[in-house]
Amino acid sequence: MTAAKPAFDPAPRPALSRATDAIWHPTLPREQAERAPLNSGATSDALLGPKEDKLVELRLELPKSLRRALRTEAEARGLTVDQLVAMVVRSYLKR
C-alpha cells in the first residue's frame, strides 16, 4: 500500500501573524496587571518570571580624589555612592 501524496498547490499561503496577547505566557493569569510581559526571550523567564537583581558586596580600592569625586557627584544627584557606582557600571556595560 502506498500512500498518495497530496497535490502540490503553488498558490502562496498567508503569512503567519502574531496574536495580540502573544507577549503573555499562556499559563500566567491575565487579570494580574502587575506582572510584566515576558519579552526577554529566556525560557527561565517564561517559567519563573523575571529575576530581581540581588545586591552583592563589592570591595575595591580607589584613589582618594576619585572617591571624593564620586561622593560629590552622588550628593549632587541625590543618590548614595553605591547607587551611583551601580548606575555607572550598568551604563558602561549597557545592561
Compute the CA-based radius of gyration: 26 Å
Distance between the termini: 60 Å
Largest sheet: none
> What string gives the helices and strands in order?
HHH
Helical element count? 3
**How many beta-strand segments?**
0
Structural class: mainly alpha
> Given the C-alpha coordinates, what overall shape results?
rod-shaped
Percent of residues in helices comes to 25-40%
State mean pLDDT (0 to 100 scale): 76
Name the poorly predicted regions. none
Strand content: under 5%
Question: Any overview of this molecule?
Answer:
This protein is mostly helical and 95 residues long. It has a domain at 60-95. It is built from three helices and no strands. It has helices at 43-48, 64-77, 81-93. It is rod-shaped.
Task: Explain the layout of strands and helices.
Layout: H1 43-48, H2 64-77, H3 81-93
Give the structure's gist in a few sentences.
The chain is mainly alpha-helical and 95 residues long. The protein has helices spanning 43-48, 64-77, 81-93.
Key descriptive features of the protein:
mainly alpha, 3 helices, 0% strand
